[in-house]
Amino acid sequence: MLTQIEIPQADNLDSVLEAIIAIGQGNTTDVTIAASVRSITSDRQGRYYRKAAEILGFVTNRHNSSALTPKGERLLQNPSINNPLFISSVLQTEVFQMLLQFFEIKTVVTREELRSFIEQLPGCNISDDTLRRRLSTLLSWLKKLNVLSDTVNGFTLSNLFTRDLPIVEMSDGIQFMFPSQGNLSEYNALESNSIGMGGIIQIFKNQARLDRANANHKHLVELVASRISSAGGIPKRNKYIDLSTRFNGDYIFEMKSFSPTNQRSQIRKGISQLYEYRYIQKCPQAQLVLVVENRLNTIDHWLADYLEQDRNIHLVWDGNDELYSSLRTRSALEFLELIPLD
């Protein structure tokens, strides 16, 4: 359940990066951080920028003494806003994850709609002036990362933003992938509906943790995610769903690696997981896609027809970093640029 949403108060994303660099150079207090970053004009702003670095997970702070986290140390190996680690850290904060989903629903969003959206977030019972400043900060960050484009009618997701986009890992507070409205009451209602499923969801999370440690599984996820982002979509996953996206419709992907001895059992496991994921997500219209590392062998080739004709699950397989499918699945998943083999 969403109980508190932190919104950064540091307007300039470049200066957030500079603050992280300054902390890495030994400037550990708000005063010394402020003195080290050119655009920061007061000690209070030093605190805002340090706090923004904390929200992104690059810094910890105790009694006004800041230190880099291991993630912050990795960032400083390539201290750039274009570093995928920096981009993904912004997009993995709850407020930006909810904003991304809001833009996927609305397509074009006005400033007033954004204001109303932020106003209903937990912890945002603030004055109009403060709300205006928070909105300004969020828009500043999203524009800096090329997430948003200005249009005559409002703001829309930028095509430039999704190219080479890292997979957006949804936070524990936002495990639902396909909201239809994007407001807080919808998230909380979905969360309440899943309370009785906590046991099975934990099993899914444990299984996903094991699967994602497998190099072949990871390769499949990254291969499909790159096709999604190249086509202008946002590849997302949570603690148990391998991948999902929205392209004029909702899609849930499950990746399976297998050996000659466990091919059939892995396929069956993937089928059940996809159905259960869709049910948990309360998204009956979502299309289901099973991605495997090799084409099914001759003995089990009938499973391809079973999946697509009987179960209405699209089957995709890898072949030397090319993605293959039936003609039927290729037509349904044009954004993946599949090679048809029937």
Description:
The chain is α/β, with parallel strands linked by helices. Among the domains are: 13-82, Orthogonal Bundle (Arc Repressor Mutant, subunit A), CATH 1.10.10; 191-340, 3-Layer(aba) Sandwich (Restriction Endonuclease). It is 48% helix and 14% strand. It has helices at 13-24, 30-36, 43-55, 70-75, 84-91, 94-106, 111-119, 128-144, 159-162, 184-193, 198-212, 215-230, 263-280, 302-310, 327-332; strands spanning 59-61, 66-68, 108-109, 148-150, 155-157, 168-169, 236-237, 243-246, 250-256, 287-292, 313-319, 322-325, 339-340. A 6-stranded mixed sheet has the order 8-9-10-11-12-13, with helices on both faces. A hairpin with a 4-residue loop joins strand 4 (148-150) and strand 5. The chain starts with 12 loop residues before the first helix and ends with a strand. The mean pLDDT is 87.
